[in-house]
């Protein structure tokens, strides 16, 4: 059966549907280190704050939200302005169906257009996310052993990196997501990766 997949920018109004995807990760896994599921209002605020500078993408399958991915600052200091940290969450059971790959590739293409030089992922280990990121070209750059406490045990955190541009003496200025042309964003999101 063929499913209709649409990747689009998320909006704060999507918060309840995105929370339906995210909540099981909070309640049942150490993939996120949050202990409590945020409220829809708090989640809507997170989406709005992210969209002020970075892409926040929703994936729809047959008209329903099936996952999301977004970028955030790697760190707050100005010198990190060309780096971004990525996150992705899919409805349980939709992993290994290339939806995550499509979401991430669209996100990475948008970040490239924003002149981001390096994309980073902070991943709880062990777990399938490491292999997923490796298939997209990410490489391990560090491990923080036993650094997160959730569900009565310590978890390792692995940092992975994907260069998006060459590190040059004078990088191109960072372009906030709202400043990208609507046509470019549409083209990237409609590319059947």
Care to describe what's here?
With 193 residues, this protein is α+β, with helices and mostly antiparallel strands. 30% of the residues lie in helices and 31% in strands. The protein has 5 helices and 7 strands; from the N terminus they run E-H-H-E-E-E-H-E-H-E-E-H. The protein has helices at 15-28, 40-51, 99-113, 129-135, 182-190; strands at residues 5-9, 56-61, 64-73, 83-90, 118-125, 139-150, 153-163. It has a 7-stranded mixed β-sheet. Strand 2 (56-61) and strand 3 form a beta hairpin. The radius of gyration is 16 Å and the shape is globular. The chain starts with a strand and ends with a helix.
What structural category arises from helix and sheet content? Answer: alpha+beta
What is the residue-mean pLDDT, rounded to a whole number? 94
- Fraction of residues in helix: 25-40%
Number of strands: 7
Order of helices and strands: EHHEEEHEHEEH
Strand proportion, as a percent range, falls in 25-35%
- By DSSP (H or I, 4+ residues per run), the number of helices equals 5
Strand order of the largest sheet: 1-2-3-4-5-7-6
- Provide the low-confidence segments as ranges: none
Tags for this model:
193 residues, 5 helices, alpha+beta, 30% helix, 7 strands, seven-stranded mixed beta sheet
